[in-house]
Amino acid sequence: MAIQVGDKAPDFELKDNHGAPVRLSDHLGRRNVALVFYPFAFTGVCTGELRELRDNLPLLADRDTQLLAVSNDSIHTLRVFAEQEGLEYPLLSDFWPHGEVSRAYGVFDEGKGCAVRGTFVIDREGIVRWTVVNALPDARDLNEYVEALDAL
Protein backbone atom coordinates (compact mmCIF):
# COMPACT_ATOMS: atom_id res chain seq x y z
CA MET A 1 0.00 0.00 0.00
CA ALA A 2 1.27 3.47 -0.91
CA ILE A 3 2.22 5.92 1.80
CA GLN A 4 -0.60 8.29 2.68
CA VAL A 5 -1.26 11.99 3.11
CA GLY A 6 0.13 13.06 6.48
CA ASP A 7 2.92 10.45 6.45
CA LYS A 8 6.56 11.46 6.69
CA ALA A 9 8.08 10.87 3.26
CA PRO A 10 10.84 8.26 3.40
CA ASP A 11 14.22 9.84 2.67
CA PHE A 12 16.27 8.25 -0.08
CA GLU A 13 19.39 8.66 -2.16
CA LEU A 14 19.31 7.73 -5.84
CA LYS A 15 21.60 8.55 -8.74
CA ASP A 16 20.28 10.87 -11.43
CA ASN A 17 20.67 10.45 -15.18
CA HIS A 18 24.19 11.93 -14.92
CA GLY A 19 25.25 9.64 -12.06
CA ALA A 20 25.05 12.35 -9.37
CA PRO A 21 23.48 11.41 -6.03
CA VAL A 22 20.16 13.06 -5.23
CA ARG A 23 18.53 12.90 -1.79
CA LEU A 24 15.03 13.93 -0.88
CA SER A 25 16.49 15.54 2.24
CA ASP A 26 18.61 17.86 0.05
CA HIS A 27 15.42 19.71 -0.85
CA LEU A 28 13.62 19.68 2.48
CA GLY A 29 13.52 22.97 4.34
CA ARG A 30 14.06 24.81 1.05
CA ARG A 31 11.27 23.80 -1.32
CA ASN A 32 8.41 21.42 -1.91
CA VAL A 33 8.99 18.25 -3.93
CA ALA A 34 6.80 16.63 -6.55
CA LEU A 35 7.98 13.01 -6.51
CA VAL A 36 6.76 11.21 -9.62
CA PHE A 37 7.23 7.46 -10.07
CA TYR A 38 6.77 6.06 -13.58
CA PRO A 39 7.23 2.52 -14.94
CA PHE A 40 9.79 2.81 -17.76
CA ALA A 41 11.52 5.28 -20.05
CA PHE A 42 10.73 5.10 -23.77
CA THR A 43 7.18 3.80 -23.25
CA GLY A 44 4.14 5.59 -24.59
CA VAL A 45 2.26 6.82 -21.52
CA CYS A 46 5.46 7.54 -19.55
CA THR A 47 6.97 9.54 -22.39
CA GLY A 48 3.75 11.54 -22.75
CA GLU A 49 3.60 12.30 -19.03
CA LEU A 50 7.24 13.33 -18.82
CA ARG A 51 6.92 15.55 -21.91
CA GLU A 52 3.91 17.26 -20.32
CA LEU A 53 5.95 17.87 -17.15
CA ARG A 54 8.82 19.23 -19.29
CA ASP A 55 6.49 21.59 -21.14
CA ASN A 56 4.87 22.81 -17.93
CA LEU A 57 7.87 22.88 -15.60
CA PRO A 58 7.27 26.59 -14.77
CA LEU A 59 3.98 25.60 -13.11
CA LEU A 60 6.03 23.71 -10.53
CA ALA A 61 8.96 26.13 -10.34
CA ASP A 62 6.57 29.05 -9.77
CA ARG A 63 5.29 27.14 -6.74
CA ASP A 64 8.80 26.66 -5.34
CA THR A 65 8.68 22.95 -6.13
CA GLN A 66 11.41 20.58 -7.28
CA LEU A 67 10.32 17.82 -9.64
CA LEU A 68 11.99 14.44 -9.11
CA ALA A 69 11.01 11.66 -11.53
CA VAL A 70 11.85 8.07 -10.54
CA SER A 71 11.84 4.87 -12.58
CA ASN A 72 13.45 1.46 -12.30
CA ASP A 73 15.56 2.07 -15.41
CA SER A 74 19.36 2.19 -15.36
CA ILE A 75 21.20 5.52 -15.22
CA HIS A 76 22.41 4.98 -18.79
CA THR A 77 18.89 4.45 -20.12
CA LEU A 78 17.70 7.56 -18.29
CA ARG A 79 20.57 9.65 -19.69
CA VAL A 80 19.67 8.76 -23.28
CA PHE A 81 15.95 9.24 -22.59
CA ALA A 82 16.50 12.70 -21.06
CA GLU A 83 18.71 13.78 -23.96
CA GLN A 84 16.27 12.48 -26.58
CA GLU A 85 13.26 14.14 -24.93
CA GLY A 86 14.95 17.34 -23.74
CA LEU A 87 14.15 16.60 -20.09
CA GLU A 88 16.06 19.02 -17.89
CA TYR A 89 14.79 17.87 -14.52
CA PRO A 90 16.33 14.98 -12.57
CA LEU A 91 15.45 11.46 -13.70
CA LEU A 92 16.36 9.19 -10.81
CA SER A 93 17.31 5.53 -11.17
CA ASP A 94 15.74 3.09 -8.70
CA PHE A 95 17.49 0.28 -10.56
CA TRP A 96 19.65 -1.20 -7.82
CA PRO A 97 18.81 -2.39 -5.29
CA HIS A 98 15.96 -2.92 -7.71
CA GLY A 99 12.88 -0.94 -6.71
CA GLU A 100 14.04 -0.18 -3.16
CA VAL A 101 12.67 3.38 -3.11
CA SER A 102 9.55 2.41 -5.07
CA ARG A 103 8.87 -0.23 -2.43
CA ALA A 104 9.43 2.28 0.40
CA TYR A 105 6.70 4.46 -1.14
CA GLY A 106 4.43 1.46 -1.76
CA VAL A 107 4.31 1.81 -5.55
CA PHE A 108 6.40 -1.16 -6.73
CA ASP A 109 4.53 -3.81 -8.72
CA GLU A 110 6.31 -7.06 -7.83
CA GLY A 111 4.73 -8.98 -10.71
CA LYS A 112 5.81 -6.51 -13.37
CA GLY A 113 9.12 -5.52 -11.75
CA CYS A 114 8.49 -1.79 -11.99
CA ALA A 115 6.90 1.15 -10.24
CA VAL A 116 3.29 2.02 -10.94
CA ARG A 117 2.31 5.65 -11.57
CA GLY A 118 2.56 7.16 -8.11
CA THR A 119 2.85 10.87 -7.38
CA PHE A 120 3.62 12.39 -3.99
CA VAL A 121 3.55 16.12 -3.23
CA ILE A 122 5.89 16.59 -0.26
CA ASP A 123 6.08 19.84 1.67
CA ARG A 124 9.25 21.54 2.91
CA GLU A 125 9.03 19.63 6.21
CA GLY A 126 8.98 16.27 4.44
CA ILE A 127 5.29 15.51 4.98
CA VAL A 128 3.21 14.02 2.16
CA ARG A 129 0.42 16.52 1.46
CA TRP A 130 -1.16 14.95 -1.62
CA THR A 131 -0.84 11.69 -3.49
CA VAL A 132 -2.32 9.76 -6.38
CA VAL A 133 -1.50 6.26 -7.57
CA ASN A 134 -2.69 5.17 -11.00
CA ALA A 135 -2.57 1.82 -12.75
CA LEU A 136 0.13 1.35 -15.38
CA PRO A 137 -1.97 2.38 -18.40
CA ASP A 138 -3.56 5.44 -16.74
CA ALA A 139 -1.83 8.80 -17.16
CA ARG A 140 -1.98 11.36 -14.37
CA ASP A 141 -3.41 14.88 -14.55
CA LEU A 142 -0.78 17.60 -14.05
CA ASN A 143 -3.50 20.08 -13.02
CA GLU A 144 -4.09 17.96 -9.90
CA TYR A 145 -0.43 18.42 -8.84
CA VAL A 146 -0.72 22.18 -9.32
CA GLU A 147 -3.94 22.36 -7.28
CA ALA A 148 -2.29 20.36 -4.49
CA LEU A 149 0.71 22.72 -4.48
CA ASP A 150 -1.57 25.76 -4.42
CA ALA A 151 -3.21 24.34 -1.30
CA LEU A 152 0.10 24.24 0.63
What profile does the largest beta sheet have? Answer: 7 strands, mixed
- Using the alpha-carbon principal axes, give the shape: globular
Structural class: alpha+beta
If helices are DSSP runs of H or I spanning 4 or more residues, what is the number of helices?
5
> Stretches where pLDDT falls below 50 for ≥5 residues?
none
Q: How far from one another are the termini?
A: 24 Å
Strand share of the residues? 25-35%
* Arithmetic mean pLDDT: 95
Number of strands: 9
Helix share bin? 25-40%
- Cα gyration radius (Å): 14 Å
For the largest beta sheet, what order do the strands appear in spatially?
A: 2-1-5-4-3-8-9
Oligomer type: single chain
Order of helices and strands: EEEHHEHEHEEEEH
What does this structure look like?
The chain has 152 residues and is of the alpha+beta class. It is 28% helix and 26% strand. The chain is built from five helices and nine strands. It has helices spanning 44-55, 57-61, 75-85, 100-104, 142-150, and strands at 13-16, 21-23, 32-37, 65-71, 91-93, 108-109, 114-115, 117-122, 128-134. The chain has a seven-stranded mixed β-sheet. Strands 6-7 form a two-stranded antiparallel ribbon. The longest helix has 12 residues, at 44-55. It is globular and about 35 Å long. The chain starts with 12 loop residues before the first strand and ends with a helix.
